[in-house]
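pasting for ref
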Amino acid sequence: MILPIVAYGDSVLRKVGKEIDSNYPELKQLLANMKATMENAQGVGLAAPQIGRAIRLFLIDASPFAEDEDLPQEERNILKEFKHVFINAKILKEEGEEWGFQEGCLSIPDIREEVFRKEKITVEYQDEHFKKHTKVLDGLAARVFQHEYDHIEGILFTDKLSSLKKRLLKKKLDNISKGKTTADYRMRYPNAKKR
């Protein structure tokens, strides 16, 4: 089932997610719904807070980036296969220089801004079977992971912008929270006027 994506301004996007275990109710169905929702919105990642659940769960399917011919073939091959469920994820280490990239977010439609993040990270997480993994990610795979990880920490990409950029975007962000925006997918707006 395709779920509505929670828009900027909803308090659930500011909550630090709670860890879950294998007894989490209807997890298999939730994962299927999140995958369908992410694909319907043409996203490369979706975190549980974006569908109204403050838990430490997100999905990534970075394969659309594999079609970018400006990227080295090796990175494109990695991105093509970078499709995972991340439960109770942690970033263990961040390394390298920070680099900028235009990021967007399904909860913040029509806004894309350059965000600076570390180029290499070591992460620990559980998969959908609660098997523990440790991985080293770099490049776009690391960036997508960090963006989704921020969601389970109650952080949005707009929080990483300069105070000037935030002031310039304030009206647009307020409009998104009121439902005064267009998205090609279902959304739930926290401050939309009832008609």
